[in-house]
Write a structure and sequence with these properties.
Chain lengths: 179, 179
DNA sequence: TGACAAACTTACTGCTTAGTAAGTAAAATC
DNA sequence: GATTTTACTTACTAAGCAGTAAGTTTGTCA
C-alpha cells in the first residue's frame, strides 16, 4: 500500500502496474492480487487509509491545539513534504485528472477525500477569520476551494517549473489571508 | 489533432490510444501512424498548435484592446468553456500529473506552454495593478501562479464536486484582485 | 502430530498497446 | 500517358496489462 500510494502520486492510477509493485517488493505479480484482487480495490484501500490518516491528524491534539495560522501552516506543509519528497502530486488531483478512466468505487473515494479536506479547511478559515487571525473577502467555503485547488495545481506546476513555483503559491496564499 | 486534444483533456496522455482516434474517425490504426509516427510526436503537435493558438489570441486586437478586468474575464472563460464542454481539464495540468511517464519532448512543450501562460497573466496583473484596476499583495508573478494553479486545480476538482465548485474558485479569484 | 489456513509461486490467458512492413487506390505532377 | 506522391488498408509483432487457476511452502493451533 505504501508503494501503491507513492506510485499513484508519482504516475497516476493508469501509470503504474501490479508488476511495478511486485518488482520493488521482490515478489511476483500474483502475490499482490492475493491481497488486492482488483486494481480498483487496491486504489480504494490506499485512499481509505489516507482518509483515515487525515481524520486522525486533524482530531489529534497536536494539531487541534495549534493557533489558526499554525494550522494553516500545517496544512501547507503536508503538500510541501509531497513536493520535497520526490516531487509527488496530491492524490486527489492525480485521480481527478484520470476521473473518466478510473473505476466507479475509486471515484467515490476521491470525492469523499476531497470533500473532507475542504470541510476541514473551510472550518479553519471561518473560525480563524472570526477570531481575527485571518482576513479575506468571500465565503470561507470559496476561499478554501481557492487555497486547496491552487496547492493541488501548484504541485503539478512544480513538475514543469520547479519547487520555487510551488513555494511562491504557498507564500502568496498566506499573504492573501494572514492579517 | 482535434480528437487527440479532446482525449488528452478528457483522459490524459496515457489514457487514450491510437485506436480511440482511429475508431472515432472511421479509419485504421496505421492511418494515424502515417501522420504521427509516434505518440510523442502527436502529443507535441497538439501542444504546439495550442501554444500557437494562445499566442494568436493574446496578440489579437479583440483581446488586446480589452480593459484589464475584461482581459482577466477572457482568461477565466477559456477554462469555463473547458468545464462546460464535457468537463475537460487544462492540458498543462493533465500532462503535469503524468509528467514522470511521458516522453521528454512532450515535457518540454508542457513547460513552454505553462511559462507562456504565466508570463501573459503576470503582465496583465502587473499593468492592471499599476492602472488601478486590480489590487493584491505580493508580486504579479506569484499572484499569477496562484490564479493559474487554482483554475487548473478547480477544473480537476469539478470532476468530483461539480461545476459549482469551479465557478466558486473563479468568483473568489476575481473578488481577491478586483478593486 | 496432523489439519488447516495464510501467503505466496508457477504458469497461464485474453486483451490492449504502440509501432511496422508491405501492398493498394487515387490524385497530382511531369 | 507515365511516374511519383499521398493517404491510406491489411496484416502483423512484441511487449505490457489485469487477472486467474493450481500447486507449494510456512507457520499456527487443536
Amino acid at each position: 500500500m505504501n508503494l501503491a500510494e507513492e506510485l499513484l502520486q508519482d504516475r497516476g492510477f493508469n501509470g503504474f502496474s501490479y508488476a511495478d509493485i511486485a518488482g520493488q517488493l521482490g515478489v511476483k505479480n500474483a502475490a499482490i492480487h492475493y491481497h488486492f484482487p482488483s486494481k480498483e480495490e487496491l486504489g480504494i484501500a490506499v485512499i481509505k487509509r489516507y482518509r483515515e490518516r487525515f481524520k486522525l491528524w486533524v482530531n489529534n491534539s497536536r494539531i487541534k491545539d495549534l493557533s489558526y495560522p499554525e494550522k494553516l501552516d500545517w496544512f501547507f506543509n503536508i503538500y510541501s513534504d509531497f513536493r520535497v519528497n520526490n516531487g509527488k502530486v496530491c492524490l486527489v488531483g492525480a485521480l481527478e485528472v484520470e476521473f473518466n478512466s478510473i473505476p466507479e468505487g475509486l471515484r467515490k473515494e476521491v470525492e469523499y477525500l476531497n470533500r473532507e479536506t475542504l470541510v476541514w479547511l473551510e472550518a479553519i478559515l471561518a473560525e480563524g477569520r472570526e477570531a481575527g487571525a485571518f482576513q479575506f473577502k468571500g465565503t470561507p467555503a470559496s476561499k478554501a476551494a481557492v487555497i486547496y485547488s491552487s496547492v493541488q495545481g501548484a504541485l503539478q506546476m512544480a513538475r514543469a517549473l520547479g519547487t520555487k513555483k510551488f513555494c511562491e503559491v504557498v507564500e502568496q496564499n498566506k499573504q492573501d489571508v494572514l492579517v
